[in-house]
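Revision sheet: structure tokens.
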Amino acid sequence: MSKFNLLLVDDDLLVHETAKEEFAGTEVKLFHAHSGEEGLDLFRKSPLKFPIVLLDYSMPDVLGDKVTEQILTINPKQLIVIYSADQTRDTLKKTLQAGAVDFIEKDLDFEIKIDKLREHFQKWKTLYATYEEPKNINEKREYINSFNFEGQSDDLYRICKQVDLLSPKDVTVLINGPSGTGKNDLAKAIVQNSKRKDYPFRTVNCGAISEKLFESEFFGHIKGAFTDANQDKIGLFESCNHGTLFLDEIGDLPLNMQVKLLRALQDQVITKVGCTKEIPINVRIIAATNKDLEEEIREKRFREDLYYRINVVSFEMPSLKERREDIPLLVDRFLKEDETRDFSITLHALNYLKTYSWPGNIRELKNEINSFTALALNKVINVENLPAKFFNDASSTVENIEEVKSLESVKLKQVEIERSYWQQVILKHRKLSVPQIIQELMEKHEMSRATLYRKFKELNIKIESIKEVTNAV
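Predicted:
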């Protein structure tokens, strides 16, 4: 039986401790949330991560039927099982009407309990047959590229899957992540895969709008509303009606402006400056921030009610140093943007780029590549072209190898590294039988048997051959 993630949402610490003991040694990997809001926050960040949500009904902050409704707003296919000691007809009715698929009593015999969860996991696998892992790395890259991203990392693949899942929905989205990670590109990908893709898309940097001009910029004004208002002006909300408004760096919005924005989002109406007539709006909001908004709330710099209004579904954009395997593909894309010259880069230089910490993320990488191509005296970027900062990074340990003339040579090198890794792992377990080795690798890497076999087929790895050679030696 393949392993699967289970999110347990319950305010009782004893229930969590009991669950840890019960599920220890099974295929279930437990994740814990100790309140309804904490469970919703975890689910918003990774709506494809948990095949099953095991949810207590009677929690002090939010009842189970309300949590169920909000989870299903994010992912209509999510399997939610109510986990409660309350067996009353009213509880069952409310949770099943809200969309839960089952009800499990907390004191139920564990074998019956785990069998029920296994059945639901099989249903989840059927529901998400189209969300299985790609067959090979090229299929993975092509899928990511279809969202106009460049990369092959698991983090980027997961984000694209989440966009895919979100496409039929019309919910408000919050994108978290450091500056320069591509939050704007993600907002565009969400819009292009939504039912509003043919309607206006507007972007505003919340940190660049003065408090004096906020209402005029967002809601518009009429002629004569204030000095220099020489004509009527249409605001951002009205200009992208039926479309999407992207509020970049919303964490920089001052508190008094947050109040006015919240009112417009709640009421779905605006009033132009100098006018009393209310104008109905139909605008989808995507917001982005590089700040920890929960910390901003604690410091009284961001309104909690606005946070929950914009944080219906959330995305986490990883930093570039968290997705280093994407760097060669990004470098290749940026090099090709200069169509006047056919640039290449040596693997020696590329390895320095891969091991650099990239505090400015993708934006910094793109600027560096543009600088290289603008100043290069020939078509090959090598170590001599790199600024000193790449050599000062303590993590920069690279080897001098041949020039990269195409992206294919980078791909081949990556395959060699991956094959070498798996061979070394197998060698560590060479005294075990082949089935035992497979089981060890499945558990260590949290991979299914089918995925592991497919991986070894791609890399032309035969466990039996490795064991025979090493045993002969």
